Amino acid sequence: MPRPSRRSRSLRRVHIRIPSGISKLVYKKRKPRKAVCGECEAVLQGVPRERPTKMMNLSKSQKRPERKYGGVLCPSCTKRKIIANVRRI
């Protein structure tokens, strides 16, 4: 039986094969949920689903799209917002 801290389902169970050829059960933390648009709740493309420690090691351009509101709004909401801002001026 696994030790008490490993019995929780907040840890996912992964079977890996170690160099000796034996299959072993490893406990890993789950990935965070997908990034969503701030307005329409659509899933954002180009934003990785990684743990904070892995995100720290990614470059800025790999963390989110290189455009206005990249990583915050989806392309269609971005387009609407930019057009609305231009018309306001």
Q: How would you characterize the overall build of this protein?
A:
It is a single chain. The protein is an alpha+beta fold. It has helices at residues 52-57, 60-63, 75-88, and strands spanning 11-17, 23-29. The mean pLDDT is 95. It has a two-stranded antiparallel ribbon. The chain has two domains: 1-30, no CATH class; 33-89, no CATH class. The termini are far apart.
Quick structural summary:
The chain is an alpha+beta fold. The protein has helices at residues 52-57, 60-63, 75-88; strands spanning 11-17, 23-29.
Oligomer: single chain
Strand content: 15-25%
Number of structural domains = 2
What is the first-to-last residue Cα distance? Answer: 66 Å
What share of residues is helical?
25-40%
> Could you tell me the number of beta strands?
2
Mean pLDDT: 95
Order of helices and strands: EEHHH
DSSP summary: helix tally: 3
The helix/strand class is alpha+beta
- Cα-atom radius of gyration: 20 Å
- Which geometry do the CA atoms define? elongated
**Main sheet?**
2 strands, antiparallel
**Residue windows where pLDDT falls under 50 for at least 5 positions:** none
Strands of the widest sheet, in order across it, are: 1-2
Notable traits:
single chain; 89 residues; alpha+beta; two-stranded antiparallel sheet; 16% strand
Compile the SSE list and pairings.
Blueprint: E1 11-17, E2 23-29, H1 52-57, H2 60-63, H3 75-88
Antiparallel strand pairs: 1-2
